[in-house]
Amino acid sequence: MTMVSQIVQDHICEQFTVIIQCAKCSQKGSEIWEENTQINGRSPETPQLIKRSEEFYERLAKKIPHPIEVVCHRCGTVLPDAQRKVRMGPAPPSFAL
User: What pLDDT shows up at residue 66?
Assistant: First the structure.
């Protein structure tokens, strides 16, 4: 697989895929993230979510301070945040912007 990246002014924009899976029903999906790095060597910015597959959706958590949580469409289980923070590789061409 080739890395999906693009140079925009003085930044390198890189997209990568995170595979997600429901712990209860084993439904699988993916998220496409974009990370911008300045060419002059500064640290990358916080990755931004570009797209999530249709098997999962976002909602406000029921607990205060109401962070965003990802929920499985099939069974309604909330996906733990720790599972979503693993970088898996480049975005597939079909998801690239």
Answer: 75
Q: Which two tokens stand for residue 52?
A: 């999530």
Close Cβ partners of 10 (under 8 Å, ≥ 6 residues apart): 38, 39, 40
78, containing H or E segment: strand 78-79
- The residue length of the chain stands at 97
Total-model pTM:
0.64
In contact, 69 and 79? CB cutoff 8 Å: yes
Nearest of 48, 46, 79 to residue 61 by alpha carbon: 79
C-alpha 26: how far from chain center: 18
List the domain boundaries for the chain: 4-90
